[in-house]
Write a sequence for this structure.
């Protein structure tokens, strides 16, 4: 058997991980890979750290790899080991584990580090950089009240956004005149600042930090002007510096980065470098796309294919801050000789579109506020297309959806993961894919920074004709969105699901959308709709949760999780009398009697004499509470009382998807308020209200929507939010999707603006609908349909 | 040979809903649709869910457990690769629902599962 080529990869970041993938696929059995990574965890996608920080995805979302993965793939992975020494003569590397490992080829992929300018006080406790999972975790752990982010580039803004989603008050200090000056021109940079401020983040430009002060720990920053900003955290995002150690003290040529040629070879035979640690033609890189381009080149070089060379790559950037659409590609300024620009700017609506033209060709693009033409514009920059082709898109006279994209098969669509159009088309055809999310999952195109997703959708459309819509259609048969149905119900004053069916066909050929239609019709009519039980799921026809064996479960309402001996006794009796399979304390502080026959439900409810807990449907569920000031030595607010009152205010109401709430008596948060759809936490002097949290299929920490002084105000905000969600949420859309979709600021602007009267109107509508509801378990004595609870009918 | 039996009254089954009936010890789901009454073994081909508790539109029922859709005219599962559900001819005469259960024995494997559990 031929001897395997021993390849050592130093660095397990984006480039290192891609290298390993590519070597394993292309090198097949002919190679043996050793991989060093000095971070404590397996490879992850650094670009997605921002989303991780903002709580939008979990660790699994950024793709950390397990030890098993490396073992299964035969990679000698040295986790947490840093290479300290290299001997290029005997061809060996030594790590912090003290072991020398021999190589035939050595590839540096050691990336870069955050560069921290010599600001006085930068080593105080509470000063952070934003580069690794560890940084993010430490920042979140520190959970600052007031944070200052130094640097208003991509990274700084993403850090600021991440911190603000966790309730911190954040100020971004930027030295230059406008934000993201490398990717944006002056006008768009200024407009961006306004968009960022709408998210509750303060922006200060032309702000030079003189000192970070504090006694050992950060207490604030002092600007050059002498002004002091209090802060308990400072995050420095002023740039990056290539890592060069341990190449520095060897014969390997190092300038600002490790110097490489167009084949990613260093001056030493058998030693290569890729990614942010490299310097090519005097240029450093700071994005994934060029790093991955280099990876493709180096793998080919090592495996003997000398065709591919690296010539530098263009930068396309997307800001990953929810609610802000921003695309920048190529030259944003057009200051060079012979450059022209086409610009359309509307500072009022916050929309800015610009194309930079050189010699009649598109060389740069900026889109802010409206990124619908993102795919076309970045494509135009990449292909240096004639200006005429995109002029209409910039001025807005042409709609992006009407401009088909014509890309050659080898055009690279996803820069982050190096996926070509041809590759995507082949995968779509081979696997007969119809949904964008499936294409993303199978090709990885669009899975990292997401800027090419519109393009992926476009290609899918061109390939299969019709894209299986993932727009949240309420009725997939008729392609109707929730708002289509809402409009129809409103315009034609429809009162029942059947009437909706007559009007638009929804719910007529297939039953799937009927429960959602029921929700829309009933909530649009504030509960004064015509109830049709056939349009509800069995759970809502018999007000209990169907189980795998066809029996049902009963969860009575115990507001705030508080019950009493009498109720407990009756629960015990019912469980015995109707042969329940189990009695269980649920995860939401309630009792569940499981395994009751349908025909026994009415009798069991009568025996219980308690109202329905709605545990079986898309409705308000419960308010979980803690014992609060009444009992707890730490309590600062009567959370039990607030929870119970709240539960009474909203019980019996249906919602687009289930709504869970919690009230905690102090920031120890025993009721887990921050992972509920609506949660409230008593703090010194008031109540902090969270929305959009969950700890189910998705774990999302809620956003602090407001902090108010009294329990009454807290209830008002909670109710306004609930009704806003009831009126605008898509059926089946939990608040953890709803809040990011609509945007926290947008929601705030409606539900907190008491002066406008709208919050009060929302609450009025909720109360009006609430007045039409009643405990559905009362149907035990007045059935709504014939044989409603019959186990079977007939002779 | 046919064996028409009265299983219930038409008004026993609300419009666009289903109810369970028993025929010779087997569970059958009877549905009341726009196109009349249909009967299918009350055991979902997927994992045995009670189709009589399903959601109905046109001549389709969607199983309450995992939403497999069954075309009532043919018993076919339209959204999964599963074997058909057994269907039975139905007639309505003077308000009573009659079912031809002559082939019910042939579906013993499908229908008896539930029957034994209940017994
Ligand atoms: C009974 C209970 C588990 C328990 O024994 O503790 C339960 C049981 C079920 N949960 Fe749950 N969930 C229960 C608390 C939770 C919790 C914890 C909580 O509420 O504090 C969560 C995570 C919190 C959250 O949702 O944010 C939870 C997240 C889910 C999810 C995931 C929802 C999501 O969007 O991420 C589902 C699936 C769904 O809704 O589509 C689900 C669905 C279900 C269903 C209803 C599935 C179904 O439709 O049949 C289960 C019914 C079992 C049965 O046969 O009766 N259950 N479920 C809990 C009832 C609470 C109650 O008193 O009302
Ligand atoms: C928060 C954030 C958001 C970003 N967003 C984007 C974006 O939207 N688009 C984009 O294109 N780019 C983005 N970037 C930049 C992108 O992450 C980098 O370009 C990319 O990670 C570079 O890959 P790399 O492998 O060269 O370096 P890295 O990913 O930094 O990997 C280098 C690895 O080597 C390890 N290492 C260093 N020295 C040694 C040693 N001696 N021994 C062992 N291991 C060592 C390091 O710890 C590190 O794990 C973002 C970066 C951050 C931090
Ligand atoms: S949240 Fe606070 S007040 Fe409530 S029980 Fe926990 S520690 Fe006590
Ligand atoms: S049992 Fe019917 S769909 Fe699963």
């Amino acid at each position: 058997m031929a001897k395997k080529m021993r390849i050592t990869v130093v660095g397990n970041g984006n480039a290192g991980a891609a290298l390993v993938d590519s070597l394993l696929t292309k090198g097949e059995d002919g190679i043996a890979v050793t991989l060093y990574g000095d971070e404590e965890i397996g490879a992850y996608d650094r670009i997605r750290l921002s989303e991780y920080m903002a709580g939008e995805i979990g660790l699994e979302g950024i793709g950390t790899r397990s030890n098993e993965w490396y073992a299964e793939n035969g990679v000698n992975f040295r986790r947490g080991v840093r290479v300290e020494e290299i001997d290029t003569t005997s061809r060996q590397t030594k790590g912090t584990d003290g072991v020398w490992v021999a190589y035939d080829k050595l590839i540096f992929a050691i990336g870069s580090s955050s560069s921290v300018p010599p600001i006085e006080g930068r080593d105080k406790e509470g000063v952070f950089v934003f580069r690794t999972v560890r940084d993010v975790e430490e920042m979140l752990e520190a959970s600052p009240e007031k944070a200052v982010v130094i640097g208003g580039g991509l990274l700084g803004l993403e850090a600021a956004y991440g911190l603000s989603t966790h309730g911190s008050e954040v100020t971004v200090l930027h030295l230059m005149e406008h934000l993201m000056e490398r990717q944006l021109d002056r006008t768009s940079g200024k407009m961006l600042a306004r968009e960022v401020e709408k998210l509750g983040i303060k922006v200060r430009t032309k702000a030079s930090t003189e000192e970070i002060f504090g006694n050992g720990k950060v207490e604030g920053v002092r600007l050059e002007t002498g002004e002091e900003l209090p802060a308990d955290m400072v995050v420095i995002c002023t740039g990056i510096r290539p890592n060069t150690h341990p190449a520095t003290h060897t014969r390997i040529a190092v300038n600002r980065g490790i110097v490489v040629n167009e084949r990613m070879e260093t001056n030493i035979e058998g030693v290569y470098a890729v990614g942010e640690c490299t310097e090519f033609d005097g240029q450093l890189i700071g994005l994934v796309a060029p790093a991955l381009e280099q990876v493709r080149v180096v793998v080919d070089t090592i495996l003997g294919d000398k065709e591919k060379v690296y010539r530098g790559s263009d930068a396309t950037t997307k800001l990953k801050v929810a609610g802000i659409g921003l695309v920048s590609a190529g030259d944003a300024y057009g200051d060079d000789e012979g450059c022209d620009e086409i610009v359309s700017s509307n500072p009022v609506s916050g929309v800015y579109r610009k194309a930079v033209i050189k010699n009649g060709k598109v060389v740069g693009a900026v889109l802010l506020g409206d990124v619908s033409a993102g795919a076309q514009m970045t494509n135009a920059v990449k292909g240096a297309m004639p200006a005429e082709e995109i002029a209409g898109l910039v001025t807005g006279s042409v709609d992006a959806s009407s401009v088909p994209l014509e890309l050659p098969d080898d055009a690279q669509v996803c820069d982050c993961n190096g996926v070509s159009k041809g590759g995507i088309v082949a995968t779509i055809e081979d696997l007969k894919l119809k949904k964008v999310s499936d294409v993303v999952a199978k090709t990885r195109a669009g899975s990292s920074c997401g800027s090419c997703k519109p393009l992926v959708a476009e290609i899918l459309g061109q390939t299969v004709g019709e894209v299986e819509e993932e727009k949240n259609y309420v009725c997939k048969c008729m392609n109707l969105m929730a708002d289509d149905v809402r409009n129809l119900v409103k315009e034609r004053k429809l009162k029942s699901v059947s009437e909706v069916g007559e009007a638009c066909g929804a719910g007529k050929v297939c039953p799937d959308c009927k429960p959602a239609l029921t929700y829309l019709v009933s909530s649009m009519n504030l509960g004064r709709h015509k109830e049709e039980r056939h349009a509800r799921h069995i759970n809502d026809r018999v007000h209990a949760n169907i189980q795998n064996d066809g029996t049902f479960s009963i969860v009575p309402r115990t507001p705030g999780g508080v019950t009493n001996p009498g109720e407990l006794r009756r629960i015990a009796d019912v469980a015995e009398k109707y042969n329940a399979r189990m009695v269980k304390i649920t995860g939401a502080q309630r009792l569940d009697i499981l395994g009751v026959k349908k025909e026994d439900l009415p009798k069991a409810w009568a025996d219980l004499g308690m109202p329905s807990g709605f545990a079986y449907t898309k409705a308000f569920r419960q308010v979980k509470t803690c014992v609060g000031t009444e009992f707890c030595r730490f309590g600062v607010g009567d959370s039990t009382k607030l929870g119970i009152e709240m539960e009474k205010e909203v019980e019996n109401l249906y919602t687009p998807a289930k709504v869970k709430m919690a009230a905690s008596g102090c920031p120890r948060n025993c009721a887990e308020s921050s992972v509920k759809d609506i949660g409230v936490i008593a703090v010194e002097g008031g109540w902090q209200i969270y929305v959009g949290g969950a700890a189910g299929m998705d774990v999302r920490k809620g956003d602090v929507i407001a902090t108010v002084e009294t329990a009454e105000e807290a209830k008002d905000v909670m109710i306004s939010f609930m009704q806003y969600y009831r009126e605008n949420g898509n059926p089946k859309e939990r608040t953890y999707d709803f809040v990011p979709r609509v945007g926290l600021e947008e929601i705030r602007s409606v539900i907190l603006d008491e002066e406008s009267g709208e919050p009060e109107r929302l609450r009025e509508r909720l109360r009006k609908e609430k007045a039409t509801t009643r405990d559905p378990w009362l149907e035990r004595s007045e059935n709504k349909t014939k044989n409603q609870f019959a186990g079977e009918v007939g002779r | 040979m046919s064996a028409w039996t009265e299983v219930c009254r038409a008004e026993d089954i609300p419009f666009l809903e289903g109810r369970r009936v028993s025929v010779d010890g087997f569970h059958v789901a009877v549905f009341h649709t726009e196109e009349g009454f249909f009967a299918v073994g009350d055991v979902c081909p997927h994992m045995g869910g009670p189709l009589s508790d399903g959601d109905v539109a046109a001549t389709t029922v969607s199983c309450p457990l995992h939403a497999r859709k069954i075309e009532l005219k043919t018993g076919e599962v339209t959204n999964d690769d599963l074997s058909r559900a057994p269907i039975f001819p139905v007639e309505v005469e003077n308000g009573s629902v009659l079912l031809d259960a002559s082939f019910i024995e042939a579906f013993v494997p499908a229908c008896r599962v539930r029957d034994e559990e209940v017994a």
